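Summary for the funding panel

The consortium committed to producing paired sequence-structure records for every protein in the target list. Below we show the first two records in order, beginning with the earlier of the two.
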Amino acid sequence: MIDLKSLFGGKKDKKTGFPQNKFDEKIKFAMWWPSDKDEDFLKSKGMKLIRGLYKEMDGIETYMFGHLMNMFSPIKDTPLFRVDLPKDGRAMIYVDEKVLGTGNRGRLVMICVSKEKGIQFKFNPHLCSPEIREGLLSNFLKIAKDKRSFVMKKKHPLDAEDEKSRGPEWLDSLIDAFKKHSKEGDTMTLGLEI
């Protein structure tokens, strides 16, 4: 596993103000990576936000996927509709800085959706500081809480067992792997795309 913290060197990118990465072509998107302020995933704000997202989306992933698709690429004029999670492979929604209004250039967020891992929010570590990543995770968590509240208040049916992902179980196994590796002194990233 690549240790992102060790790759971020001293020079700062003139466009983003973030540290340059000497292996830019290899690192694309990650759910979490260590920073000077937040070196341990298990104790990080990011872990709490990611775990909170999986908890809030459990049972309403088809609603959340529909909402995200409509949010970033409007397809229906309704506040609530469902989209099945892909049974094989995964669907991806790329979100660039124009949509989020962060002032950065390029694709900032990749939302991956699959039956195996649920809905994952991955960020471009070259354009996102940990603070931007956590701010966006907080916003997505608020959306998930609002969507859950709406579904429950209106008594809409929750996702059936065959519609649900194995995302919560996948996250638990990943957290267990982090615990094992942190005991061994390893640094890891979460959901790194190479």
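The next record, for a separate protein in the list, is shown here:
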Amino acid sequence: MEDDGICMQCHATEGFSDASAEGVDSGYGSRHDTSSFVWLRQRSAAHGVLCDQCLDRLVESGDLAKYADRRGPLAHLPDTVLGAVFVLGADYGNRFVAAARLMDSGDTSAAAALPARWQRRRKPLRTEDAAWLPAMALERCFASGFPPLEADPLRAGILAALAAGITTPAGLVDGALDASCRRFLGMLNADRDGYADG
């Protein structure tokens, strides 16, 4: 935890959720322990911690939405949340590719390109880690024990960005990102309609 657990919004001392521009991850001590949230309307530039009360207010106001807990991705999420999580995953995938390219060119700032949740890891980034980040992320996308990709918008976004990064230096951005997200949501909705018809 950052800032000794002091909530960055109300300055209470019981903040147990790490917040960044990417979203919020709740840890031990929070009643939301092991839950992950994505920004819907507001992307906070500040990095810090949130207490449960401020986190609850952000969820109630529609600024944040919970998309996963210790059991994995939540089911039956609305398209707005699924789309936001897919875009977050694509951002992660783009950053993995960027970090690998920086390290490959000898740039030692590769760790700064990684998502905040990866930068919080205790072990420093090694050269061999950075070079293999896309492969490690890809392997995680297909690891056993995870739900299928169509049920996990974060991993689907990572995978789409890694695939785009093979041919496009910028990865999955702008119109290509929008189109990829629409395809993902269309696939999910077609599956839902199929289940409903069956």
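Regarding this second record: The chain has two domains: 3-70, 79-197. Residues 72 and 147 are 8 Å apart (CA to CA).
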